[in-house]
Design a protein that fits this description.
Helix content is about 35%, strand content about 25%. By secondary structure, it is of the alpha/beta class. A hairpin with a 5-residue loop joins strand 6 and strand 7. About 40% of the residues are buried.
Length: about 350
């Protein structure tokens, strides 16, 4: 029996539709075959999925089973296909009778117990579901909170494979998350211990220069001896920048979500980003890239501050690759897996010794 579940693959900071097709009941030795350009993490998903099925009270397929991630030319990476693969197996083996299963966009990692874990790119996937007019989105708790920031598409939080199956059967109601409530939770006051520009004592000329640079969205170069407070001032610049608008907020979250920072708890969701790469950073880490192109430091600082301390110590090539992105406000990366364009509108702040 054939079952199809809709999921998504990240391409830069955007998502593309992926159909997870599961065909069970084929003649032959009981084995599973995963095709569709999966990476190592996706290939391992079947081992996690089969353990999750067993521990959730379901039965893995006992026949030859083929799982196809379409389109086949698009490289798939990450663990976001665990939940759609599991639900596809349940539907293909007759353990899940759900109408219009393909009308939902589903993503999520599964633990061996069947519980769900968050995935990267939830915001981009919710935007894709809205564009495709999907019935709704099913995601793990933390990813669902992020996806709910997108208006126009219902987002449902599923904590386990069992709950997802019962919801799709119509046995368990799962109310859609409220976008306004999700925005309220992300727009929190600064945490205790956060740095603030008002803490700077003295340095009147430098403070005035920083205020003018922030007001006019100018770049800034600070020159002074070690210990004069250059790094201390730079870290406090985001505190006097205006709070991001809703559209800027979503752009920032899209980039950090694609990089996995929203699920690791590394960022303050309501603050403008501040990135300070070490002077040994590579060109790819600074600009972005990888086998499947992803955001680098300059994109992670979008709508915020990119701070280059000890400017003369950076490699010449690393500084040269910043020239065009700083002029254009975006960076285009071409790799064998495709070409992506990432936003990088930043305030560049640099510091150096005399």
């Amino acid at each position: 029996m054939l079952a199809t579940v809709a999921s998504a693959a990240l391409q830069g900071i955007d998502a593309e539709l992926v159909h997870v097709e599961v065909n069970a009941g084929e003649a032959g030795e009981p084995k599973w075959f995963l095709v569709g350009l999966p990476d190592a993490a996706v290939k391992e998903s079947c081992d996690r999925v089969f353990a999750a099925l067993n521990n959730s009270g379901f039965h893995p397929p006992r026949t030859r089973t083929t799982i196809n991630l379409a389109p086949g030319h698009l490289r798939k990476e990450g663990s976001c296909y665990d939940l759609p693969i599991a639900l596809g197996i349940l539907a293909a083996t007759g353990q899940l009778k759900a109408e219009n299963l393909g009308d939902w966009l589903i993503a999520g990692e599964l633990s061996l117990s069947g519980a769900t874990r968050p995935v990267r790119g939830a915001l981009a996937m919710a935007r894709l579901a809205r564009t495709l007019h999907k019935r709704g989105v099913l995601m793990p708790a933390l990813s669902a909170e992020e996806a709910a920031l997108v208006d126009g598409v219902p987002v449902h939080r599923v904590d386990s494979l069992d709950r997802a199956a019962r919801f799709l059967r119509g046995e368990m109601p799962l109310p859609a998350l409220d976008p306004a409530e999700s925005r309220r939770r992300t727009q929190t006051p600064p945490p205790d211990g956060a740095v603030d520009f008002s803490e700077i004592k003295g340095q009147h000329a430098l403070r005035r220069a920083v205020e003018v640079a922030v007001a006019g969205n100018h770049n800034l170069l600070m020159i002074g001896p070690p210990g004069s407070g250059k790094s201390m001032v730079a870290k406090r610049i985001p505190s006097i920048m205006p709070r991001p608008t809703l559209e800027e907020h979503l752009e920032i979250l899209s980039i950090h979500s694609a990089a996995g920072r929203t699920i690791s708890g590394e960022m303050n969701w309501d603050a403008r980003p501040f990135r300070s790469p070490h002077h040994t950073v590579s060109d790819v880490a600074l600009l972005g890239g990888g086998t499947i192109p992803g955001p680098g430091e300059i994109s992670l600082a979008h709508h915020g501050v990119l701070f280059l301390d000890e400017l003369p110590e950076f490699k010449r090539s690393a500084l040269e690759v910043l020239r065009q992105p700083l002029e254009d406000g975006e960076v285009s990366i071409s790799r064998s897996a495709g070409k992506v364009t990432l936003p990088c509108s930043v305030m560049l702040v640099a510091a150096m010794n005399p």
